[in-house]
């Protein structure tokens, strides 16, 4: 972009030289315009970016490089959306969720990502400390970003059921689950493009979509992540899910950036087969209806250089159905080695 502005100034001067003699007023106007363009070119910069918070990147880590990005989610789950999208209060559940994203470039077109996570929960004097499921991913760089073309990245991933989901304590069942209990394959497509609509405030936009397919049923006994009760024994056919996230980043300066995500998640119905069990003599509920959630996450970034930066923001739902209503403070740091 900077080269284009300078080239435009030079071409303007050449065209003026070829035209018939101009008036003093025309010459002054041309000089003022050229001066403004030159000042803009001097103030332009190559922007640094860290985020946004939710939407996945469309660019692989370069070959031979390593990128680490720890996240910390501090969340209060204070209500639940019912099937009619009405938010109903529940006893507050406090969750601290550290997540560590590790990426390395394997070739110019392939990289690898692993995302271990832990979950610490508190509710009415009860607490738990658990590991979540473990996602691993391979990213395929389909297209690199250019002046006219976006960056496009295809992602294939697998989630390993390392989280707890089964044989839970009745007293802590709502804070004792941290996984789905199934292997699941994820297919994703991420797109990103830089726009210079305002020369001094470039904008980067991202679109990320993911479709997740469980590879097996979850075997459940007793109280579990899908409901259950005393004597429950059976299988859960876990529903497929779809996520679509849109994020944009507006450069305020080279180092300071404003970012926002809009995130949509749909989870298909999970169906139970087997012995339902009981809770206080009443048949237990098992499985879960389909659900969705639309949320927003505004954030601020500070990027000291082009290899590392900080981002922090608030993540909260706009609306939902059969899903959790929450508010989450999200902090992250990224560094490329």
Characterization of this structure:
This protein is mainly beta. The protein folds into two domains: 1-44; 49-336, Beta Barrel (Porin). It is built from two helices and 19 strands. The strands form three sheets. It has a twelve-stranded antiparallel beta barrel. Strands 10-11-14 form a three-stranded antiparallel β-sheet, with no helix packed on it. It has a two-stranded antiparallel ribbon with strand order 15-16. Helix 1 runs antiparallel to helix 2. The longest helix is centred in the first third of the chain and has 20 residues, at 24-43. The chain is elongated and about 100 Å long. The chain starts with a helix and ends with a strand.
> Which percent range fits the helix content?
10-25%
State the separation between the terminal residues, measured CA to CA. Answer: 27 Å
Query: What is the gyration radius calculated from CA atoms?
Result: 26 Å
> What order do the helices and strands follow?
HHEEEEEEEEEEEEEEEEEEE
If helices are DSSP runs of H or I spanning 4 or more residues, what is the number of helices? Answer: 2
What structural category characterises the helix and strand content? Answer: mainly beta
Shape: elongated
Mean pLDDT: 89
Percentage of residues in strands: over 45%
Q: What is the CATH third-level topology name of the largest domain?
A: Porin
Lateral strand order in the biggest sheet: 1-2-3-6-7-8-9-12-13-17-18-19
The CATH superfamily of the largest domain appears as monomeric porin ompg
- Give the C-level CATH assignment of the largest domain: Mainly Beta
Low-confidence segments: 13-17
């Amino acid at each position: 972009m900077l080269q284009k502005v300078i080239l435009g100034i030079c071409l303007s001067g050449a065209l003026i030289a070829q035209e018939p003699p101009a008036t003093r007023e025309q010459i002054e106007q041309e000089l003022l315009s050229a001066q403004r363009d030159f000042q803009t070119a001097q103030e332009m910069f190559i922007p640094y970016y860290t985020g946004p918070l939710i939407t996945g990147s469309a660019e692989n880590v370069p070959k031979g490089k390593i990128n680490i990005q720890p996240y910390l989610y501090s969340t209060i789950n204070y209500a639940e959306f019912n099937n009619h999208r009405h938010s109903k209060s529940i006893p507050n559940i406090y969750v601290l969720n550290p997540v560590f994203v590790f990426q390395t470039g394997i070739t110019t077109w392939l990289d690898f990502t692993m995302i271990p996570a832990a979950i610490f929960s508190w509710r009415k004097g009860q607490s738990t400390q658990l590991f979540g499921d473990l996602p691993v991913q391979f990213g395929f760089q389909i297209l690199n970003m250019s002046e006219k073309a976006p960056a496009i990245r295809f992602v294939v991933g697998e989630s390993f059921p390392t989280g707890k989901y089964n044989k839970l304590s009745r007293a802590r069942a709502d804070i004792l689950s941290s996984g789905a209990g199934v292997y699941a394959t994820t297919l994703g497509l991420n797109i990103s493009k830089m726009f210079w609509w305002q020369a001094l405030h470039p904008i980067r936009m991202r679109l990320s979509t993911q479709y997740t397919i469980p590879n097996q049923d979850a075997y459940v006994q007793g109280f579990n992540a899908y409901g259950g009760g005393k004597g429950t024994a059976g299988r859960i056919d876990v529903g497929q899910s779809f996520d679509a996230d849109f994020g944009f980043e507006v450069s305020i300066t080279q180092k300071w950036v404003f970012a926002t995500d809009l995130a949509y998640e749909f989870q298909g119905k999970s169906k139970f087969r087997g012995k339902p069990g009981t809770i206080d003599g009443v048949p237990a509920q098992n499985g879960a209806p389909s659900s969705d959630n639309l949320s927003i996450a505004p954030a601020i970034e500070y990027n000291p250089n082009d290899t590392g930066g900080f981002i922090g923001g608030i993540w909260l739902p706009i609306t939902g159905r059969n899903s959790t209503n929450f508010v989450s403070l999200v902090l992250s740091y990224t560094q490329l080695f």
